[in-house]
Design brief:
Layout (H helix, E strand, L loop, with lengths): L2 H8 L10 H12 L7 H8 L12
């Protein structure tokens, strides 16, 4: 698994609607740093980080 994916997953699920704007921007930048396509293993790890809300559109 690539370091960018590991870093995103290590930070845990993005905060929901209570997150600060800066937190949402930071997590969005983390995702943007992950080059496509992702592997099946990476996709499973990334999907496991998201819950029922859209995290300010990050999801």
């Amino acid at each position: 698994m690539r370091p960018q994916v590991q870093a995103f997953v290590a930070d845990g699920p993005p905060s929901g609607w209570e997150a600060s704007e800066g937190e949402g921007d930071r997590r969005d930048q983390q995702l943007g740093a992950i080059a496509r396509p992702v592997t099946r293993e990476e996709a499973k790890a990334l999907v496991s980080c998201f819950g029922p809300d859209d995290c300010y559109g990050v999801a």
